[in-house]
Amino acid sequence: MSSNMDKPVQRFGEILGAPVGTTWKNRKECFDAGVHRQIEAGISGTEADGAYSIVVSGQYKDDKDNGDKILYTGSGGRKLKNNTRELDRDQEWSDFGNQALRKSSETGKPVRVIRGHELDSEYAPWEGFRYDGLYICKRAWQEKDADGYYYICRYNLERVPGQPSLRRRLTVGRYRPLPDSEAVQPPAPVNGRQRIRQQEQASLDKDASFLGVPL
Description:
Elements: E1 23-24, H1 27-33, E2 43-46, E3 50-56, E4 64-65, E5 69-73, H2 96-107, E6 111-116, E7 129-144, E8 151-159, H3 192-211
Parallel strand pairs: 3-6
Antiparallel strand pairs: 1-7, 2-3, 4-5, 5-8, 6-7, 7-8
């Protein structure tokens, strides 16, 4: 029988055996690896210490992922049974995840960032969840969401320099490595949104080929 001694200890920074680019099939595997010690919550940490890690997976439509910079939306504001990205109330600082990431904006300690395959971003993995390195939370504040209805907790995160480059999509089904990296991740669309985008790109490629435009 396993005990608490068998579980990975919560800590800041890199996790042994999980370098940048490591991918897991699901959140349970991320939990077991010690990279993100929450099965459902997007922020893992404590009010006293700050956030150890976050998952960026497109659960909130106000998220903006620009690779080295992320505009992240806090947790809460939705019913637990609500599987959409729509809010039905304000987000609160009293939420443990929001408290933790706000603390990180004060301490400057690094936060592990894991991207999920459902994130609508050129930096998202095609499948599963991928560890993309350490980020610093530069600022935390509250503002109205894009629809102007509810207050959300907002965070600016910037990637720590000197880490391996992020994998980046050029178009659907293709990847463009950054200058200091030749790593390419093969496409494997796993949800409806990605399949639709792939079909749209295939249609564009077909039209371009018909018109004699180089792909």
